[in-house]
Design brief:
By secondary structure, this protein is mostly beta strands. It is 15% helix and 39% strand.
């Protein structure tokens, strides 16, 4: 409703409209009693009938009225005008911070000044137990004299402050229930995005996003859609400030970075601490020399000096006991290569050149590039598919493995530099290898860690980890310790990281996925040159990041804990560390797929559905609907086959794999990263868990049963993990083991009474008849079947082959007839970190793949060590 000038609202006379403000209309008015102009915000009667809008309006008034601080808008009174509530506040003249940011970034001095004022205002609110929860440039007002005023506490929440007297606590709602997302997209903290309970550190995250914007002129998190922006808040880091504005002081960048930590525990502990950090960056203070100059007596000077020293020592000790241990911080990341080639495997550097693997599997080659970046040049060698393992201490040769694939057994060779002449070491095979400083060879095979002389002679076992495979061994710079990762072959996942002395004694676990705040998949540890830190990589939410573990706990800080170094937006895999230890050389991957369809008439692949970046397609029986997993985010979507009517069904941080639409097209079954199977309506909603410890669910034709593969461990199998096939009855919830299915993966229904499954080594397909309870062979291939699927109807099984000439095959299940559909020799298909390669089949019978069009380049990541 519009209010005309001259209208009286209570004792106030309306002078002129000022525009919209938050949830209401704002007017300039005159307070005749005190002779001052004020602002009046009126909530229109149409909105006041909305209980939520009314509650928020009243909450804003109570929150602001409870606070008396120069950096918070002062509220004087609340009342009702013609059924519409209003509140009276101080009149501000100036502009919002958003208005100022429309002209670009602010000078650093001004950004620091605004930041200090905002932090002080937040500290005052937090001390009263009030969270703002909607901090953004629109809610920060800059007066004409440069004072910051925090506006709009409409989403404020009261938290418990034990030391605050009850009489001083504002009367407010305790906030929304967990699971309700409140705030403004782009400034919400990760915990707000997830709908979790938030404390005052959520305001600090929003503050960090604002400070980032003041310094760079760009929003920290800004994507085309709200869903993508929320995903970025959860999973990505904004571009480094130094890349946008190189002149910003590193200390200022670290303040912003700490505010924007994904984990609330890693942000500043309070707004007061944040204000203190910003004040330390400002140079408005002066050295305290005048007080000392005023001391005339030498005795007095000594007394003051002693007292000052005692105070300083006490302060330092207090800080030492209370502050968290200093941690390494990434300062910058510089791209060194730009050739568009896939870059799997390891990196090594002699200080002048970087040696790396390039090319698709199984056609690896070795390339080199300057440590300062530039053109990559291939290293000449006659070895087929060489995989870099280590570099000799003098930089004269590379230790490489020659085998069919990573983690598979291969022979060990020394490749001389720069000529590329190769010499085999011994006659043993290895799954991973490294070098001692004296040139001895450290290697792994199966569950054992072994050592051999420089020429590969006299191999001997150092240690063994039963039930696991040992991989990625490395030696400390002093040569006294060994670290290696482990791998569970049947599960297809990485296990703990182990450490031991170089003679094999003292074997113990030092890192385990899923514990101590770590993601589930960790591996590939390497020491820094000084031996003080262990670097390693960890995978979560479809992305790999770099982490660091201090080798010794700091004095007075207890045992050391792993610290995340990178947090996107690229996926970084660990290569090596520069000779001076300041830079980590890593492969930075930007995942991007292109959905393609094989055209049998053109004998080639062409984009399908516009070449969207998706994976794991599944079609409804009538061919009208499809569901798929976004790549690389791994969220579940559904749409019509023409791409219309798109709907996102799951959200981060949940990782979805292997979806399958029910026969009637109303539901979709899928598995998560944690091997839990769910069923979800194609219209969205809450997924229903059907079983744990399962993978690749598939529906029976009548829609009542779901077949899953499971991992099992038991004494009758020597405590080893094995796979088996199971059937879940959705009507009763009963789970039945398919007889004699140990060592199978899959399985998929091809008829109501028939299953097809692959053996665990993926070299054979077998068919199970539920009526006779018997298995029979369908097809076999010594080079393995990396990917396979059974489309709706169950007549055919489509699969891919491995080797130097990979193909797509179609096997008719009725008579086992096999035919070649297409060659995959020139297709660079996505090899998903959760499921491996995949193949899908469109309703017309054409095969679909996700072509890898992402980038993998070498980056030099500069780290500031404590």
């Amino acid at each position: 409703m519009a209010i005309a000038s001259g209208t009286r609202i209570g004792p106030y006379e309306v002078l002129a409209p000022l525009g919209a403000g938050g949830m209401g209309e704002v007017y300039r008015a005159r307070d005749p009693q005190l002779g001052r102009d004020v602002a009046i915000k009126v909530l229109p009667s149409s909105l006041s009938r909305d209980p939520d809008r009314l509650r928020r309006f009243e909450q804003e008034a109570r929150a602001a009225a409870a606070l008396n601080h120069p950096n918070i808008l002062a509220v004087y009174q609340m009342g009702t005008y013609e059924g519409a509530p209003y509140l009276v506040s101080e009149l501000l003249e100036g502009s919002t911070l958003r208005d100022q940011l429309l002209h670009g970034p602010l000078p650093v001095r001004k950004a620091v000044d605004y930041g200090i004022q905002t932090a002080r205002g937040l500290a005052a609110a937090h001390e009263k137990g009030i969270l703002h929860r909607d901090l953004k440039p629109e809610n920060l007002f800059v007066t004409k004299d440069g004072r910051i005023k925090i506006l709009d506490f409409g989403l404020a929440k009261l938290i418990q402050v034990p030391d605050l007297p009850a009489a001083d606590r504002p009367t407010m709602s305790e906030g929304t229930e967990p699971g309700v997302v409140l705030g403004t997209v782009g400034y919400m903290s990760p915990e707000q995005v997830r709908g979790h309970a938030a404390d005052d550190r959520a305001d600090l995250f929003a503050f960090g996003a604002i400070l980032y914007e003041m310094l760079t002129g760009k929003r920290a998190f800004h994507k085309p859609t709200s869903a993508e922006t929320m995903s970025a808040i959860l999973n990505e880091e904004p571009s480094a400030i130094s890349q946008i504005v190189p002149t910003i002081p590193p200390a200022m960048q670290r303040v912003v970075q700490r505010c924007l930590e994904k984990s609330a525990e890693q942000r500043f502990h309070s707004a007061s601490d944040l204000a203190f950090a910003l004040e330390a960056l400002s140079d408005t203070g002066s050295a305290p020399t005048a007080a000392f100059a005023a001391v005339k007596s030498r005795t007095n000077w000594i007394w003051f000096a002693a007292a000052g020293s005692a105070i300083a020592i006490t302060a330092v000790l207090a800080l030492w006991f209370t502050r968290p241990a200093a941690v390494p911080v990434v300062e910058s990341a510089v791209q060194l290569t730009d050739d568009g080639e896939p870059k799997p495997g390891m990196l090594e550097s002699d200080g002048a050149r970087i040696y790396l693997n390039e090319g698709p599997m199984p056609s690896y080659r070795i390339a080199q590039v300057s440590v300062s970046g530039g053109e990559t040049v291939q290293l000449p060698t006659q070895l087929v598919n060489p995989q870099i393992a280590a570099l000799t201490k003098d930089g004269s040769a590379l230790l490489v493995l020659v085998g069919t694939s990573p983690l598979a057994p291969g022979s060990m060779w020394l490749l001389s530099l720069p000529a590329g002449a190769a010499r085999r070491l011994g006659d043993m095979e290895a799954t991973g290898a490294g070098l001692f400083p004296d040139g001895r060879v450290l290697y792994t095979f199966a569950s054992a860690v072994l050592v051999a002389e420089r020429d590969g002679s006299h191999p001997r076992k150092l240690a063994e980890i039963p039930q696991l495979s040992a991989v990625f061994p490395t030696v400390s710079p002093s040569g006294g310790r060994i670290v290696f990762s482990s791998y569970e072959t049947n599960l297809g996942s990485l296990g703990p990281v182990y450490e031991m002395a170089s003679d094999g004694t003292g074997l113990h676990e030092i890192l385990k996925g899923g514990q101590g705040g770590l993601p589930s998949e960790i591996c590939c540890a390497k020491w820094t040159p000084d031996g003080k830190y262990l670097l390693f990589q960890a995978q979560s939410a479809g992305r790999t990041d770099l982490w660091v573990l201090p080798e010794e706990g700091r004095l007075l800080h207890g045992s050391a804990k792993p610290v995340r170094l990178t947090n996107g937006p690229l996926s970084y895999t660990l290569g090596t560390v520069s000779h001076d230890g300041r830079q980590i050389l890593a492969i930075g991957t930007k995942g991007r797929g292109e959905l393609v369809r094989y055209d049998s008439n053109q004998h080639g692949f062409a984009p399908y559905l516009g070449g969207i970046s998706v994976f794991d397609l599944t079609f409804s029986s009538d061919g009208k609907w499809l569901a798929y997993v976004s790549y690389p985010e791994h969220t579940l979507w559904r749409s019509r086959v023409d791409g219309s009517d798109r709907l996102q069904l799951t959200y981060p941080p949940q990782i979805v794999v292997t979806p399958r639409i029910s026969p009637d097209g109303t539901r979709v079954a899928f598995t998560t990263e944690g091997n839990e199977s769910y069923v979800l309506s194609m219209s969205g909603g809450t997924p229903q868990k059907i079983t744990d410890n399962a993978q690749a669910p598939d529906w029976s034709p009548d829609g009542n049963l779901v077949a899953v593969g499971s991992y099992v461990s038991g004494k009758e199998f020597g405590e080893k993990t094995f796979t088996e096939s199971r059937i879940v009855d959705l009507r009763s919830g009963n789970v039945a083991v398919v007889p004699d299915s140990q060592g199978t993966v899959g399985p998929w229904f091809v008829a109501q009474d028939t299953l097809v499954a692959a053996t665990a080594d993926q070299t054979k397909f077998r068919v199970f008849d539920l009526g006779t309870r018997k298995w029979s062979d369908l097809a076999a291939n010594p080079d393995t079947f990396p990917a396979w699927t059974v489309p709706a109807g169950g007549k055919y099984l489509y699969c891919t082959t491995a080797g130097t000439d990979p193909k797509v095959l179609r096997i008719r299940i009725a008579d086992h007839a096999m035919e070649t559909i297409a060659s995959l020799k020139n297709l660079r298909a996505v090899d998903d970190p959760y499921t491996g390669p995949e193949v899908s089949v469109a309703p017309d019978g054409s095969v679909l793949f996700t072509q890898d069009v992402g980038t993998q380049e070498v980056y030099a990541i500069t780290v500031k060590w404590p």
